[in-house]
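User: Just a sanity check before I run the rest of the batch. Below are the structure tokens for the first item. I only need the designed sequence back.
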């Protein structure tokens, strides 16, 4: 199993996907009509269908994406050493997000 996961990680690193996620121009993305038109249509459709689970999971994904690219996360590792004072808030944010995801996916029924 670890051999398979190692091959997957090597494949993702060879395609430069992590680097592409780090270099996304958020302002450019949300001002691009080719992204915004389908995104707004997706949000409006889910509002019409009252699919709150999908809306919450979408906003949770965007929120974690924005948080992971924030200056707070950039200061988490300085000179190759993790700053222990910043680990607890990051863990709380991601555990909270995990709790919200578990609630909306498994405990709440529509």
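Assistant: Here's the designed sequence for the first item:
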């Amino acid at each position: 199993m670890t051999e398979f996961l190692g091959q997957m990680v090597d494949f993702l690193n060879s395609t430069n996907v992590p680097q592409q996620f780090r270099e996304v121009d958020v302002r450019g993305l949300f001002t691009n009509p080719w992204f915004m038109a389908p995104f707004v249509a997706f949000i409006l459709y889910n509002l019409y269908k009252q699919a709150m689970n999908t809306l919450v999971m979408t906003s949770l994904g965007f929120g974690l994406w924005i948080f992971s690219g924030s200056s707070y996360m950039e200061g988490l590792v300085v000179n190759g050493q993790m700053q222990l004072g910043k680990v607890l808030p990051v863990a709380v944010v991601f555990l909270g997000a995990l709790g919200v995801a578990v609630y909306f996916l498994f405990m709440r029924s529509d």
